[in-house]
UniProtKB/TrEMBL annotation:
Protein name: glucan endo-1,3-beta-D-glucosidase
SUPFAM superfamilies: (Trans)glycosidases
Family matches, as InterPro entries: GH (IPR017853), Glyco_hydro_17 (IPR000490), Glyco_hydro_17_plant (IPR044965)
Gene Ontology BP annotations: carbohydrate metabolic process
Protein origin, superkingdom: Eukaryota
UniProt organism field: Aquilegia coerulea
Matches recorded under Gene3D superfamilies: Glycosidases
Entry similarity comment: Belongs to the glycosyl hydrolase 17 family.
Length: 391
């Protein structure tokens, strides 16, 4: 009797997995990573104002900070929250840890705060020192999904896990890309589960990092979406005029080689540093503006890549702000589209909370303006009108 009960339970889980809805966690094609490793950023309420003014509809945060989730209530902005790598081992063993995390950090904020995705870990695979975490990733993903399913939230929330390009054995030309042999044992079962629950493949794609690693052999214009001869992939006979498309198609090629050609690729991080150390050739304000401006234009066209022309590319740009407490090289602290005071780092068509150049006649931030009493605004306007009429 126990055998039949166990079999029935397995069939029931299999049924729910096969019939899980295809959640759309991304509105349009453009999103931004809202990192907060800094001590000088504006409050989350002002960030909501900033994002609305910029018409940015998708953000990704690296935790589930309650002040952020409260601030985004009724904003309409789609949010992907993150479960840190440090939680994965416990969550892989104990499903109640995953359930407790979701009950504390996700469920209380629904539906007013549009939490649409949970990123389980970040760049877990492909690192030589992360065997224990790599082994825990699949179990954590399954337990998080199981908890979401038990809470009947699978129609709202998509489960994913972003990867670095360190999971690939090679990526040039794009069609030759495959997963590293050391990664395959973890990646294959993870992809199998994601294919069952209709989750995308999240990849952090940085032409910037590729360029600074080999500036002598990579055309800067190819990395920046500028005019250049491009490359021809002799296997597919496809031409690439920018590295971003090539990196995305390399991920598609690796998925196809692994047997998951129907899985969608979403770029979970991409960007360009506006400053860097002496050895970080190419990290400059001009190049950051060029890359992010051209990327923004490309994504607005809602087109695909040479290998997947009918699948519009979706990407989260890294990052919303410069983060002054991030460790590592100078570039790590200078990926922001905006400065900590809310002004733009460079002009790509966004409006900051404050003007880019400070002066005695600086405009009020949107938050400050909204705090001015309406009666004072009317009185000021009336005084100005009277002055004009009597002059």
């Amino acid at each position: 009797m126990e055998t039949y009960s166990h079999l029935f339970a397995l069939l029931l889980i299999f049924f729910f997995v096969l019939h899980s809805p295809n959640v759309q966690a991304f509105t349009g094609t453009y999103g931004v990573n809202y990192g907060r490793i800094a001590d000088n950023l504006p409050p989350p309420e002002s960030v909501v104002t900033l994002l609305k003014a910029a018409k940015i509809k998708n953000i990704r945060i690296y935790d589930a900070d309650h002040s952020v989730l409260k601030a985004f209530k009724n904003s309409g902005i789609e949010i992907v929250v993150g479960i840190g790598n440090e939680f994965l081992r416990d969550m892989s063993v104990y499903e109640d840890r995953a359930m407790d995390w979701i009950k504390e950090n996700v469920q209380p904020y629904l539906p007013e705060t549009h939490i649409r995705g949970i990123a389980v870990g970040n760049e877990v695979l492909g690192h030589d020192d992360g065997v224990e975490t790599s082994e825990a990733l699949l179990g954590a993903v399954k337990n998080v999904y199981s908890a979401v399913n038990r809470l009947r939230l699978t129609n709202l929330i998509q489960i994913s896990s972003p990867h670095s390009q360190g999971v690939f054995a090679n990526s040039f030309p794009p069609s030759s890309c495959i997963f590293k042999e050391s990664v395959v044992q973890y990646m294959k079962p993870l992809l199998e589960f994601f294919s069952q629950i209709n989750s995308p493949f999240f990849i952090n794609a940085y032409p910037f990092l590729a360029y600074i690693s080999d500036p002598d052999h990579i055309d800067i214009n190819y990395a920046l979406f500028q005019k250049n001869p491009g490359i021809l992939d002799s296997k597919t006979n496809l031409h690439y005029d920018n590295m971003f498309d090539a990196q995305v198609d390399a991920a598609y090629a690796a998925l196809e080689a692994a047997g998951y050609e129907k899985m969608e690729v979403i770029v979970s991080e991409t960007g360009w540093a506006s400053r860097g150390d002496a050895n970080e050739i190419g990290a400059s304000l001009k190049n950051a503006r060029t890359y992010n401006n051209n990327l923004k234009k490309k994504l607005a066209k809602k087109k695909g890549t040479p290998l997947r022309p009918k699948t519009p590319v979706k990407a989260y740009v890294f990052a919303l702000f410069n983060e002054n407490l991030k460790p590592g090289p100078t570039s790590e602290r200078n990926f922001g589209l905006f400065k900590p005071d809310g002004s733009i780092s460079y002009d790509i068509g966004f409006t900051g909370l404050k003007p880019a150049s400070s002066s005695a006649s600086s405009l009020l931030s949107l938050k400050e303006f909204r705090a001015v009493p309406f009666s004072m605004v009317l009185a000021t306007c009336g005084s100005l009108l009277l002055l004009i009429l009597t002059s």
